[in-house]
Amino acid sequence: MVQRRCRDSGLQDLGVSNWRFISTVLKEQQEPIYYIGSDSAFMIYPMSDGKVYYYAQIIDENKTFLNTDAKQSLEKIFRNYAPEVLQSIKDLDNEEIISGSLSSVINTYYPHKNIALIGDALHGCPPSLQQGVGMGVEDAGLSSCSFFLISR
User: Fold this and answer.
1) I want to staple 14 with a disulfide (CB 3.0 to 4.6 A). Which of 45, 73, 102, 119 is the partner?
2) C-alpha span between 62 and 130 (Å, rounded)
3) pLDDT at 92
4) Whole-number Cα distances in Å, 11 to 5, 15, 37
């Protein structure tokens, strides 16, 4: 209900198209790998059971890449990236790719009964920033201080 109210009051398109998919590990790896270009990024996050979460993004204000075949877009955008990136895209079927664009709520204050949105529920960000949990902790701390001050 509250998240719907946030969306209904308006979202700001950030001009970034993204793709996400899960696949198998190409090689033994324990740490995330980030490949950063001038207007694009490709991230590889190892998970359990030999699976890997992949996240790709590009500045795409006109949705040129988002509105075309996902696999073809990924192949074109990342054609000059590392062999691991190219292989992970080559092994995909289009059905496995989740496409989207980044947007943010315009207003960050949405009162509704006794519900408060914090962290990514209110102001989401791409995984490349690694700020989702941090925003949640900060929001929870500020909320706690506010509740304490109100109760005095």
Assistant:
1) 102
2) 26
3) 85
4) 11, 12, 27
